[in-house]
Structures are given as structure tokens and as C-alpha cells.
Specification:
- By secondary structure, the protein is of the alpha/beta class.
- It is built from 35 helices and 19 strands.
- The protein has an eleven-stranded mixed β-sheet with strand order 7-10-9-8-11-12-19-18-13-14-16, sandwiched between helices. Strands 1-2-3-4 form a four-stranded mixed β-sheet. It has a two-stranded antiparallel sheet with strand order 5-6.
- The two termini are 41 Å apart.
- The relative contact order is 0.07.
């Protein structure tokens, strides 16, 4: 698979699938393990050089010098390249996972790796396990930027990287998973556990293969000397209590150490250099075994140390860790905690052995490691598993559990809360007050705030038409469709290609559009949408359902939704009517690229409307949604009111028969409602309707209404494309002549019979529908966007007639010397390119004092069957095109009038 194709695939299918997450977790585990091995061998090689140098040169001079120089270099590297790499690194990872804007990247990971290697070689008493956790998390964060995933997925990958780092550092994959769940993410979802397990397993295995065991324990000695008996339980309880007390004191000392360093007001390099210098001086005057932290740990665990040496080691490690950690040196607390725990456990074991002669100091040392680690990091389960995985000794499980749980309870009582959370508080970061994950950005989905319908451009449009579309609109970009399927997006930036490439005016839009745009589905929450907008530096995202575009969402939509949430507002105002209730529905295979809604109210006009709908649906590859609405009293609930559906079902059956004839998917439904318009609007929203075709009387007697109550309400609130049809008298006469046949087709059931809406009805004999007399078409044009929408419909509608003739006209006043023909010429080019029948198309202007007068006179003179009007977007509800031109024309002519209004944005 080529890289460009892979990038295009990832951009198109952005939502992380399980396979992609697993593959990413595998890579993260491998890279984290390699970095852990590099850190181990790098710090080990430099540490060996330091120990060897202290044996050749005077230790009191060499060790402080190395500590001073290496400490300054490590601090300088962090300060100049990545300040986020200072300290343990685990608090930074925890803050990032809590949605705090803390930087995690490859640069932070690399700087952390190098600086930790140098800092540990300086001799400071910190460990490499904490830095490895941040290195793994930083690598995962950097890798997630390659793939346009969601924020939740990115957090899961960062957590998996952190777990892989810990697993690689300790060769303990189970502990890596538990640390993620117990301390970092606290998430038990399948994807989180799965990715953490895979990354930690690979990290642990690769680290073991390449680097050996991290603690280099003498396992044979450990196994042979470890033992446990019931009588020892009180001593393990005492060990747990002591570990808890001293760990609470240790944590308090760490915080105070940071505060003391800050009061010195010196730079990070100088602070780390000072810590290295102090550590070098102290260690230079101690036995040689203290110069190697790993060697000291083995020395204690193997039982080669006596009690006084263990006490000195505990005190020295305790104080020097406070000195080192407070400086901000890149190092962790895991290794010091294990050393302190082993010393404390060994001391308790020696005391117990001297008193009762039971047990083994080595067992107590190992149990003390888990107890002190548990009390410092507040992760008892992880502590138990880490020590068990390092030793694989089942005899240690019960002592580890007693000591770790007891120390955790004592430490948490004395100093509640996580140490890492308190360290973040010192940096001014409060993850407890972090932006809630359950905010508006995660509760709301793209469906809730998207603009449900958006202007689209056809892929076959010429670049000249595209430029004109941009000039007429305030939008800076349009989705591009081909046969109803989203194939690209075009923005103002893409228009520069016309000039740069010297493209001809008739070049199709597909040559300059951006193909395969990033999309979202209606169910994606706003945080995912916002992440994608920022990830690709774009301002809008098409919302798709399958292969259909059902809306668009912009940054402004998200900002408006967030502002509404902060102000406790919603987009719904006033009392809302009770929802309509679906009592009957049928579904066909959903194989279309859009949906066309036909509210069927009058059996006498349903035949013609359905034929028109079928013509449009076949041309655009749409599905037809047929709706029958049953009105009930507002005193009764639509869901509880019994209704008779037999007549309505027979009417819808006729639509299904027509769909089978034209091979068009037809869905039907019957809704019970208090308000017809509200039921239609609910259907438009629930079924993602692209176009609605409604019957229209041509006039209304309702005061303040242009088209009538129902149509006016739908026009005002529905953003999809609309087609209103007022049938002419010629067509009505044909319908009246066949009225008896239609009544035979739709007989009224007896009043005593009320069939269940779920019982099948025998199919009625199908009567051929009366063919509409649509042979001559008049299309007045003024250049508005809805005129273009009307032109797009004509190729489908004219197929209803025989040898259709189309006249495009423009009304100009007598005061004008000559009419502007550009609009008509552009319309002819568009119509000729789109039409599929051999219809005759002419363009001729007409002179008149007003549009209404010119069109009515032309229809009466030349007897046009159909008049197609493109309503102006603004005037449709403000007396509709300067004085309600559509109603005036519809009332003044006997022909069929079709009013087209394009889709509009919310």
C-alpha cells in the first residue's frame, strides 16, 4: 500500500477502528521498549565509568566534579530544549490525560531520554523508571499526531505508551497495565485495557530480550531463602505501618524540598548541578557499595548487608533523594522507593530474626520494597505486582499484600491524595478542576449542532460557474457532490488553482476541488469534531450518513453550542408541541443517495405528486419517503389516541407500487399528530430529508399567511430543498374525470371497522395513474440561487411530458434599452449539460412593467402547461419576492405552477 493512499484512507476513515488502535499499540510498545533499553544501557555505561573513575582518581574530588558537571549539562538540556522534561515526568503524563494542555511530544521524549541518562550518570539518587513512563507517553503522543484520531483515542494511546514504558523499565507487563488503570487513566473500557495490555506486553518482552532483567536479582538465592509463616503476620503489619509513616514523611519532604529550591531563585541547570555536587560529596565518604544504586539494592536484598549498613543506606537514600528530586532533575522515584523499602524491610527482618529466629531478611526486604513503593505512589496493586513479576516467587504474595495494603492505608491517612497530584498543585495545575470530560463538547454530537442542509456544487460545474457561486454566497467553501454522493470540497483557496494553472472557463470543478475530504458522522461528539478541525487546520467538516451528506458543521457552530451551554440556553424556545406518533411504517432497502419526502394528503392530487417525485428520485438516485398525517384533538395524546389507518395505508400502497415500477426505494409512514407542519418537520429531521415535494393550493385566505398555515411553517423551519406544486386546471380536469376510479382504488372503510395498523392489508388492484399534461414549460429567471435549483430539477420533471419545450425568460422593464442575457445564457448551458431528453430549449426575454404582469400575459398568450419559479431566499417569507409574486402568478394563471426553494443553512 502506497503512503499517499494510506494517508488518504486515514483522512477519510478518521474514526479509530480497533485494528488501527491495536497496530498503533504494538508500535508504541516496541518503540518504548527500545527507548527503555537505551536508557538502561546508556545510564549504566556512564554510571560504570563514574564508579571506575572514582576508584582511579580521588573519590572526594572526582564524584562531586562529575555530579556538578553532568548535573549542569542535564539541567541545561532540559531548560533549553524541553522544560516539560524536568522532574519525574509522571505528573506531566497524568495532567495530559486529565485534559490539561501539558505538552507531550517526540521532542519531550527524546530530551527526557538524553537528560535522564546524563542526570543518572551524575550520581544523584533517582531512578530511570519514571522517565521511561514519560518517554513512552511522549512517543505515543507524537505518533498519535500522525493519525487524525479523536481526543479519547489519543488519551488511550498516551496511557498505553506510559504503561509500556513502565513495563519495559521493570520487565513487568502486568504492572504496566495496572499502573495505567490504577493511577493514570482510571478507565476500564475494552479499548483502554486492550491497547495497554498489548503495548505493555510488547514493551516487557522486548526489554527482557534485549536488556535482561532490570534489577539483576539473584533469583536462585532469592527463591531458596524466601519463606513465610502465619506467625510472621504481625511483623509484616509492623513493616507496613513503618513504611506508611516513613513514606508519608518522605512525600512531605519531597514537597518541601521543591519549595526550598524555588526560594533559592537559581536556574534549573544550577539546581541540578547543586544536587549532583551534594550527592557526590556525601557518597564519596561512604563505602564503595553506595556509589552504585543498583549494586546497593542487590547488596541489601541478597542479605550481604548488616543492620547498621541498612540503616545508613536508608538514611542516606532518604536525604539524597529529597535533595535530588527537589532540584527538578529528570529522574523518577520508583527506584529510590524500592531501595528505601528494601532497606526498611531488611531492618525489620533482621529484628524479627534476632527475636524469634523465623523468616528471612530477604523476604522482608522484598516485601518492604512493595510496601514503601505502595505508600509513596499510592498504587498498592501495582506495587504488589511489580515485585512479584520481578521475583516470580509465590511465597511473596501474601507478605506483599499485607505490607503494601497496610502502608497504603497508613500513608493515605497521614497524607491523603496522590503525590503526583500534589506535585502538579505546586506547578499551578489542579487536575481536580480540569475541564470536565462530560462537558458540552462530549454531550453534544454533530447531529445536534450541524447545519442540516448546506449548499453543494456539482462536480461537473464549470470553474466559471463556481466563481459565480462564490460571489453570490458568503460561504468560503462548498461540498462537491456527484449523483448525490460527496466526492470533494472546494474552498476559496482552491480557486487560486484557476489562476495558477491558467485553466479554461469550462474546466470542470473536479479538476480544482480537494478530493476525499475529512468527514464526520452525526454521532461523533463535538470534542472529536473540534479535534479534527484543529488537526487539519480547516474551518468546516461535512457530516455524512453512509455515502450521503446530511449537513455541515463549522467552528462557529461549535462555539455557539458551547456558549449556549455556558449560558444554560438551548435552541428551542417556547412551549413545544407533543411529538407526533408513528402508527405505521414500511421500509425498503436504503440504497439511495438522498431522500425525497412527499406528504400525501389528498388522494386526488397524490397521483401527480408521486409521479413528479418518482421522476426526481430516479434522476438524483434518491429514495422516496411517503408521509400520511392523521390529525387528532389537542386534548388527547397522539401516542394514546386510537385511529383508523386503512384508508391511509391503501393510499401509501399506491406509492409503493409506483416505486416498484420505477425501481425506486419507497418508505412509507403514518403519523398521528396535533399539528401537521410539526409532523412534517419531525420527519425531515429524523429521516434526514434532502428535498420535500408538497402540494399547494396557489392561494390562501388565512390572514398574515402567504401559502397557508402548514406550508408557511414548513418553509420557515425546514432547511432542506423545497418544491411546491399548484396543479393547473387542465391537470385537475384529468383528475376529476378519473375520480370514480380513484375512489374505487381508495374505498372508505366502514365506520365499525378499525383494523390494527400491524395487520397486513391485501394489495389493491393497481390502476394506471393519469399522465400529467406537462409539455410546454416556462421558466422566468432573475439570477438568484433558487433559479439554479429550478434548472437542476427541470431535466427530471420534463420527462413527464411528450416532446417537451422549455422557454427561459427574463422580464425587463420598458425603460431598459436591452435586457441582460448573461443569466439566461448560463442557464441554457447548465440545462443542456444536465438534460437527458431531447427537449427543445430557447431563451427569450419579455418586456413588461412588472414580473407578475409579464409572466401572466406570457402564459395566457402562449398557453404554457407549467410555470417554474425560483423563489428568492429572503422574500419567500417577507411577502415572497416583492409583493408575493408566486401567489400572484399562481392565482392569475390556469397552468401548473412549481415553486422551487433551494436548501438553506440554519
Amino acid at each position: 500500500m502506497s503512503l499517499p493512499f494510506l494517508n488518504q484512507y486515514i483522512r477519510t476513515v478518521w474514526q479509530p477502528r480497533r485494528g488501527l488502535a491495536i497496530a498503533e499499540a504494538c508500535i508504541i510498545g516496541l518503540v518504548a521498549a527500545l527507548c527503555a533499553v537505551c536508557l538502561k544501557f546508556g545510564s549504566g555505561w556512564l554510571g560504570t565509568w563514574r564508579v571506575h573513575g572514582s576508584q582511579v582518581l580521588p573519590a572526594w574530588l572526582f564524584l562531586p566534579a562529575v555530579g556538578l558537571g553532568f548535573g549542569f549539562l542535564a539541567g541545561l538540556l532540559v531548560e533549553r530544549l524541553a522544560p516539560e522534561a524536568s522532574g519525574s515526568g509522571i505528573p506531566h503524563v497524568k495532567a495530559s490525560l486529565a485534559n490539561i494542555p501539558v505538552k507531550l511530544s517526540w521532542r519531550v521524549a527524546i530530551v527526557k531520554l538524553l537528560s535522564a541518562m546524563i542526570a543518572l550518570a551524575s550520581g544523584i539518587t533517582l531512578g530511570r523508571q519514571g522517565p521511561t513512563v514519560q518517554v513512552g507517553a511522549g512517543l505515543a503522543a507524537g505518533m498519535s499526531r500522525w493519525v487524525p484520531t479523536s481526543p479519547d483515542h489519543r488519551r488511550q494511546m498516551i496511557a498505553a505508551g506510559a504503561g509500556a514504558g513502565l513495563a519495559a523499565a521493570f520487565n513487568a507487563p502486568i504492572a504496566g497495565v495496572l499502573f495505567v488503570v490504577e493511577e493514570l487513566l482510571q478507565d476500564l473500557s475494552g479499548l483502554t485495557l486492550g491497547t495497554a495490555i498489548i503495548a505493555s506486553f510488547i514493551g516487557g518482552v522486548v526489554s527482557r530480550l534485549l536488556g535482561g532483567r532490570s534489577l539483576l536479582l539473584n533469583l536462585e538465592l532469592t527463591r531458596s531463602s524466601s519463606s513465610f509463616s502465619i506467625i510472621e503476620i504481625p511483623f509484616y503489619l509492623v513493616l507496613g505501618v513503618l513504611a506508611g509513616l516513613l513514606a508519608a514523611l518522605f512525600n512531605r519532604g519531597l514537597i518541601e524540598s521543591i519549595k526550598i529550591y524555588r526560594r533559592l531563585h537559581i536556574s534549573l541547570p544550577l539546581r541540578v548541578a547543586l544536587a549532583g555536587f551534594i550527592s557526590g560529596i556525601v557518597i564519596a565518604f561512604l563505602p564503595p557499595s553506595f556509589r552504585d544504586n543498583t549494586g546497593l539494592r542487590e547488596f541489601v536484598i541478597a542479605g550481604q548487608a548488616n543492620a547498621p549498613i541498612a540503616v545508613i543506606a536508608f538514611l542516606v537514600q532518604f536525604l539524597l533523594t529529597l535533595v535530588a528530586f527537589g532540584s527538578g532533575a529528570p529522574g523518577g522515584l520508583f527506584a529510590p522507593s524500592l531501595i528505601l523499602g528494601s532497606c526498611l524491610g531488611y531492618i525489620v527482618g533482621v529484628v524479627e530474626f534476632q527475636l524469634f529466629g523465623l523468616g528471612s531478611p530477604t523476604t522482608y526486604a522484598l516485601a518492604g520494597m512493595g510496601a514503601f513503593f505502595s505508600a509513596v505512589s499510592k498504587v498498592p496493586i501495582t506495587a504488589i505486582v511489580i515485585v512479584f513479576e520481578m521475583t516470580t516467587d509465590f511465597n511473596l504474595v501474601l507478605p506483599l499484600m499485607i505490607g503494601s495494603v497496610t502502608s497504603y492505608l497508613v500513608a493515605d491517612k497521614l497524607m491523603p491524595g496522590s503525590l503526583y497530584t500534589k506535585l502538579l498543585h505546586l506547578s499551578g495545575i489542579n487536575i481536580e478542576n480540569a475541564p470536565p470530560v462530560e462537558g458540552a463538547l462530549t454531550k453534544l454530537t454533530a447531529k445536534d449542532v450541524m447545519q442540516r442542509r448546506v449548499e453543494t456544487l456539482d462536480a461537473e460545474m464549470s470553474v466559471e460557474e463556481v466563481v459565480q457561486a462564490f460571489s453570490r454566497s458568503h460561504h468560503r467553501g462548498f461540498p462537491v457532490v456527484e449523483q448525490g454522493k460527496l466526492v470533494g470540497i472546494v474552498t476559496q483557496t482552491d480557486l487560486l488553482k484557476i489562476r495558477d494553472r491558467n485553466l479554461a472557463k469550462d474546466t470542470p470543478l473536479r479538476e480544482i476541488m480537494t478530493p476525499q475530504p475529512v468527514t464526520v458522522t452525526p454521532t461523533h461528539n463535538l470534542s472529536n469534531v473540534l479535534y479534527l478541525l484543529d488537526r487539519h487546520q480547516i474551518s468546516r467538516l461535512p457530516v455524512v450518513e453512509g455515502r450521503r451528506i446530511i449537513g455541515i458543521i463549522t467552528r462557529a457552530d461549535i462555539i455557539r453550542a458551547e456558549a449556549d451551554s455556558l449560558n444554560c440556553q438551548t435552541r428551542e424556545h417556547g412551549p413545544q408541541p407533543e411529538p407526533s406518533y408513528v402508527v405505521y411504517q414500511t421500509r425498503s432497502p436504503s440504497i439511495g443517495r438522498g431522500r425525497l419526502l412527499v406528504p400525501v394528503a389528498n388522494p386526488e392530487t397524490a397521483a401527480t405528486l408521486l409521479q413528479m417525485a418518482a421522476a426526481i428520485a430516479r434522476d438524483r438516485h434518491y429514495e422516496i419517503e411517503c408521509l400520511q398525517v392523521i390529525l387528532v384533538s389537542r386534548q388527547s395524546s397522539p401516542a394514546e389516541t386510537p385511529v383508523r389507518t386503512a384508508k391511509s395505508r391503501r393510499l401509501l400502497r399506491n406509492a409503493e407500487v409506483l416505486g416498484k415500477k420505477w425501481k425506486i426505494p419507497v418508505h412509507t409512514q403514518i403519523r398521528v399528530t396535533h399539528d401537521i407542519a410539526h409532523a412534517i418537520l419531525e420527519t425531515i429531521q429524523e429521516r434526514h430529508i434532502d428535498l420535500i415535494l408538497m402540494g399547494w393550493k396557489g392561494s390562501t385566505s388565512t390572514p398574515g399567511r402567504i401559502f397557508g398555515d402548514v406550508v408557511d411553517t414548513v418553509i420557515r423551519q425546514a432547511t432542506c430543498e423545497m418544491v411546491l406544486v399548484k396543479l393547473g386546471k387542465t391537470q385537475e380536469s384529468i383528475i376529476n374525470n378519473q375520480k370514480l376510479s380513484l375512489l374505487h382504488l381508495f374505498p372508505t372503510p366502514p365506520l365499525s371497522h378499525s383494523p390494527s395498523p400491524h395487520l397486513p392489508i391485501p394489495p389493491s388492484p393497481h390502476l394506471p395513474l393519469p399522465p400529467p399534461q406537462f409539455n410546454s414549460w416556462l421558466v422566468p429567471m432573475a439570477g438568484g440561487p433558487n433559479a439554479r435549483a429550478a434548472i437542476k430539477l427541470l431535466p427530471a420533471l420534463v420527462t413527464l411530458g411528450n416532446d417537451p419545450k422549455i422557454r427561459l425568460t427574463r422580464v425587463f422593464k420598458p425603460s431598459e434599452s436591452e435586457p441582460d442575457m448573461k443569466v439566461l445564457e448560463e442557464a441554457i448551458r447548465m440545462l443542456v449539460r444536465r438534460q437527458k431528453s431531447s427537449s427543445t430549449v430557447v431563451a427569450a426575454p419579455v418586456q413588461a412593467d412588472s414580473v407578475t404582469e409579464g409572466v401572466i400575459n406570457l402564459v395566457k398568450t402562449e398557453h404554457y402547461d407549467v410555470v417554474v419559479l425560483g423563489a428568492s431566499r429572503e422574500g419567500l417569507l417577507q411577502q415572497a419576492m416583492k409583493g408575493n409574486i408566486p401567489e400572484a402568478i399562481a392565482s392569475g394563471v390556469d397552468s401548473t405552477v412549481i415553486l422551487v426553494r433551494g436548501a438553506i443553512n440554519n
